[in-house]
Specification:
The complex is a heterodimer. Chain A is mainly alpha-helical. Chain A has helices at about 5-20, 20-55, 60-110, 115-135, 140-170, 190-195, 200-210. In chain A, helix 1 packs antiparallel against helix 2 and helix 3 (about 60-110) packs antiparallel against helix 4. By secondary structure, chain B is of the alpha/beta class. Helices cover about 45% and strands about 15% of the residues of chain B. Chain B has helices at about 15-25, 40-45, 65-75, 90-100, 110-130, and strands spanning about 5-10, 30-35, 50-55, 80-85, 105. In chain B, strand 4, helix 4 (about 90-100) and strand 5 form a beta-alpha-beta unit. Chain B is globular. The chains are: A mainly alpha, B alpha/beta. The interface between A and B is medium-sized, with 23 and 26 residues.
């Protein structure tokens, strides 16, 4: 809408208002508003279409959908890892506590005039426990395989999101620092290493503080 | 220290409570009770008889640092030894625990040797103060 056209419309509106034709004024105002917004709406629509076309060309849309669909699966896989490690820890502790009682019995037997047949039986029981302890470590292989799959998924998620950001012209940023007072949990991975204290650091720090 | 010393082990993970309990038993301390966070630990402390507290930091409900502050602010428990055993390894956190009056700080994962060393040190200081 050029200036001459705008002036003409405003004049017509002024005339309608001065003769109190309010319905005509309302309609004219609405038309004016729509006419002025149209180029902006068109530009937004064009950008959205361009983005969609580019996403399709890069197959980003289908990749994004696939990644999103795999997230619940990844979550249940990680839950399975918690269960696996918990079961293994419980089994290991059961075996250790059981073995501990056998070792105590061996010590008792050593102090007395040992009954060698019983010593042999206790040793056999300990040996069985050692075998079971060794077998219980299979959780490491299993949880490792599951976690590796989830790492793969997180990797493709990162790739897809990075490409999407590039397409949308979003600048990458540094990962935000932890909020004050937020607990960090166990030291894990490269990102944590430089900020974490070792037991020796902790000891030094505490002795500096008079502990 | 007396082998009958009554320990309270506070951790939300049963596995970790069991590990600490076994390590204490290996050191000859067989008198342990357990709690899974500060909220369950406090009534046990109120009931009396606990002589040593070993606590985790990050627990749902009441955390270890809140428990430590509660212990220090109650005259009945203010002088109890409190050993923090936690995965939190940030310097700020260690300083915060020290300022709240922690008696010792162990970073998970830890060895039996570290636990023994810290326990011995705390006990030594207690005996020196007595």
């Amino acid at each position: 809408m050029n200036h001459a056209e705008l002036a003409q419309r405003l004049e017509r509106l002024h005339l309608a208002a001065s003769t109190q034709r309010w319905t005509e004024v309302e309609r004219g105002m609405q038309e004016l508003e729509e006419a002025r917004c149209r180029p902006f709406a068109q530009a937004v629509r064009r950008m959205a279409m361009d983005l969609q076309a580019e996403m399709q060309a890069l197959q980003l849309d289908s990749r994004l959908a696939r990644v999103a669909a795999e997230i619940p699966d990844a979550r249940s896989r990680l839950d399975a890892v918690i269960q696996l490690t918990e079961d293994a820890a419980t089994q290991t502790l059961d075996l250790v506590e059981d073995s501990r009682s056998y070792v105590l019995r061996l010590q008792e037997l050593a102090e007395q005039d040992a009954d060698w047949r019983e010593v042999g039986e206790v040793a056999a029981a300990l040996r069985r426990n050692l075998t079971d302890l060794s077998a219980a470590q299979a959780y490491q292989d299993l949880s490792g395989q599951i976690i590796r799959r989830v790492i793969g998924l997180v990797g493709s998620m990162e790739q897809t999101l990075t490409e999407l950001m590039e397409l949308a012209g979003i600048e990458p940023v540094e990962a935000p620092a932890a909020a004050e007072g937020e607990l960090m949990g166990p030291v894990a991975g490269r990102a944590d290493k430089h900020k974490a204290a070792s037991q020796a650091d902790a000891d030094d720090l505490l002795s500096d503080l008079g502990l | 220290m007396d082998k009958n010393t009554k320990f309270l082990v506070v951790d939300d993970f049963p596995t970790m409570r069991r590990i600490v309990k076994n390590l204490l038993a290996d050191l000859g301390y067989n008198n342990t009770v357990e709690a899974d966070d500060g909220n369950t630990a406090l009534p046990i402390l109120k009931a009396g008889g606990i002589q040593f507290v070993v606590t985790d930091w990050n627990m749902p409900g009441m955390t270890g640092i809140e428990l430590l502050k509660a212990i220090r602010s109650d005259p009945a428990t203010a002088s109890l030894p409190v050993l923090m055993v936690t995965a939190e390894a940030n310097k700020e956190q260690i300083v915060e625990a020290a300022q709240a009056g922690v008696s010792g700080y162990i970073i998970k994962p830890f060895t039996a040797e570290t636990l023994k060393e810290k326990l011995d040190r705390i006990i030594q200081r207690l005996q020196a103060a007595a």
